[in-house]
Amino acid sequence: MNTNRLSESICKALNDQMTKEAHASQIYLSYASWLNAQGYEGVANFLFRHANEERNHMMKFLEYILERGSTVKISAIPDPGENPTSVYDAFQKAFKQEVDNSESIYEIVKQSFDESDWATWNFLQWFVKEQTEEETLIINMLDKMKIAGGDKVSDQSLYSIDRDLMSTPDEADLAREKTVEEP
Ligand code: FEO
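^ inputs. structure came back:
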């Protein structure tokens, strides 16, 4: 009896996304290592924590493919690419990386909708929310850095940003959690 509950195309898309999450983790590891070497321990700590989150995302895709009786294919993780050139550049690149990842997830959401694969559609809603959170988190960081001068941020501001990021939570508050009393 065939117990595979994923179509070939959905299985491939989920396996590809699993590798993209591993790739995202490598990107954050590489940025964090470079920034740590430049002396930004707080920023590096924030990005090291984020690298772990991406590995968790990878694992969720892996477990889901298995749960649906389908086949996991572990493949090579692409090179993380160039180092950033500054803290500001690292967050700009991180934002682009997250938007690309959101687009990739939206594609699979659409694919699962088109194939009426409601289990996969439902599974992916967690990622739609997670991507909104991750984009929000980085937009908030970029906003703070823009206020501090963007590309021309002073060493003094970078010192404060680095210190704050050491203890900045991994998750951002989303609009859906806001109230009139706590905007
Ligand atoms: Fe798993 Fe940042 O996307």
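The mean pLDDT is 95. The longest helix spans residues 8-37.
thumbs up if we can close this ticket
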